[in-house]
């Protein structure tokens, strides 16, 4: 039975997030005014910083590095305790000693994307020109901008070629952008539950979430940090709506059905009578503790703009022409946010480009979020792909 936790006060939430936005509990790569990040919107962002975590050891040849790209509401704490929530890493089924992304064999790097709120520069960060949070003065960013920033981080770490780039959902978009923008720097790519562009339906869901945030009177036109308010209700509703898209009807029925919450009969009110209602309210209230509302606007917009073929005269295969990267593409049968048809379109484009690609559609009722859960077939595929790529790369222990 799911119970709703009381949310922290807006002031307490803001204080915790403000600290992590500028002084994260992780490693930080700072880039000065002489090293600007050129953004697609035409602005050079400088200075800026990238927060990241590393796991494992980089080998002498610098050939065993895996870049893990996080999804929309993820962060760099892929396999370590989250400093705000105290919860385990968001992908602890995949990353760690003896797991598919084995930190005893690989050097794993997980950066927080530009535009987010856990230490990489974004709307929650302090604007050096004003001493106040950027808010909506932060420039609009794209998936290619995120990847360019990551490439600067990888350069800073002295790594010429990544053994693999891995990610699901928005993280999978970053994987595909890496292979299109830096094909010679990516030996293998594992793209999970993603697409080469955002669909109209997904853009519509994101607009619903953004409008929920901006309709909250505490949003204050993005200046809530300065005015010491917090649009927690709007952000919670946005999270609730989005979370429904991450699941499937079968998963919701299996977990909750029409079961009542703490009662046998309806209250004939608008309280959370059903367990599924209580679950969604919990998801919303817990989300606002760790995430910034403006960052939610920026990252959803970045996903909406993503379209690899758009940069290649609408021909997707042109984006991967002549590529040598080894690909593994995975989809899930119950994922209606990024359905298998999107993955098949990617695979067809890779085949047309003569790329080396394997594809798996995994049968599960767990929906889009299946890549974050304990799905044995998926974990086995990940392990096998990385082992095979490791042998081709000549990594020791493969």
What can you see in these coordinates?
The protein has helices spanning 10-22, 143-156, 170-181, 200-215, 232-246, 249-255, 275-290, 293-305, 316-319, 340-352, 376-393, and strands spanning 27-31, 37-38, 44-45, 48-55, 65-69, 95-96, 101-102, 107-111, 162-168, 186-192, 326-332, 356-362. It has two domains: 24-200 and 307-393, 3-Layer(aba) Sandwich (Rossmann fold); 203-300, Rna Polymerase Sigma Factor, Chain: A (Orthogonal Bundle). The chain is globular, with a radius of gyration of 21 Å. It is of the alpha/beta class and 398 residues long. The protein is built from eleven helices and twelve strands. α4 (200-215) packs antiparallel against α8 and α5 (232-246) crosses α7.
Give the gist of this structure.
This protein has 398 residues and is of the alpha/beta class. The chain is 35% helix and 15% strand. It has two domains: 264 residues, Alpha/Beta hydrolase fold, catalytic domain (Rossmann fold), CATH 3.40.50; 98 residues, Rna Polymerase Sigma Factor, Chain: A (Orthogonal Bundle), CATH 1.10.1740.
């Amino acid at each position: 039975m799911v119970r709703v936790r009381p949310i922290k006060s807006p002031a307490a939430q803001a204080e915790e997030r403000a600290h992590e936005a500028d002084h994260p509990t992780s490693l930080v790569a700072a880039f000065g005014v002489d090293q600007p990040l050129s953004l697609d919107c035409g602005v050079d962002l400088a200075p800026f910083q990238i927060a990241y975590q590393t796991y494992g050891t980089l080998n002498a040849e610098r050939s065993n590095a895996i870049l893990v790209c996080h999804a929309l509401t993820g962060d760099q704490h892929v396999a370590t305790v989250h400093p705000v929530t105290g919860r385990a890493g968001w992908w602890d089924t995949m990353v760690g000693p003896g797991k598919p992304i084995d930190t005893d064999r690989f050097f794993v790097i997980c950066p927080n994307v530009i535009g987010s709120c856990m230490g990489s520069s974004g709307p929650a960060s302090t604007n050096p020109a004003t001493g106040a949070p950027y808010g909506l003065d932060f420039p609009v960013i794209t998936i290619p901008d995120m990847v360019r920033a990551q490439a600067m981080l990888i350069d800073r770490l002295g790594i010429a070629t990544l053994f693999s780039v891995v990610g699901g959902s928005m993280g999978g978009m970053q994987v595909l952008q890496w292979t299109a923008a830096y094909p010679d720097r990516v030996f293998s790519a594992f793209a999970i539950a993603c697409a080469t562009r955002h669909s109209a339906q997904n853009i519509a869901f994101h607009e619903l979430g953004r409008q929920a945030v901006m309709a909250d009177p505490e949003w204050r036109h993005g200046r809530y940090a300065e005015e010491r308010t917090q649009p927690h209700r709007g952000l919670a509703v946005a999270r609730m709506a989005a979370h429904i898209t991450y699941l499937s009807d079968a998963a919701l029925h299996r977990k909750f059905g029409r079961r009542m919450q703490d009662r046998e009969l309806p209250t004939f009110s608008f309280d959370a009578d059903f367990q599924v209602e209580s679950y969604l309210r919990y998801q919303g209230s817990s989300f606002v503790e760790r995430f910034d509302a403006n960052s939610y606007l920026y990252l959803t917009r970045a996903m909406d703009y993503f379209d690899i073929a758009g940069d290649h005269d609408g021909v997707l295969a042109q984006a991967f022409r002549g590529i040598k990267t080894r690909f593994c593409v995975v989809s899930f049968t119950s994922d209606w946010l990024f359905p298998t048809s999107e993955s098949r379109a990617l695979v067809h484009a890779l085949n047309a480009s003569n790329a080396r690609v394997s594809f798996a559609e995994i049968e599960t009722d767990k929906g889009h979020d299946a890549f974050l859960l304990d799905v044995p077939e998926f974990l086995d595929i990940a392990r096998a792909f990385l082992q095979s790529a490791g042998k081709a790369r000549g990594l020791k222990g493969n």
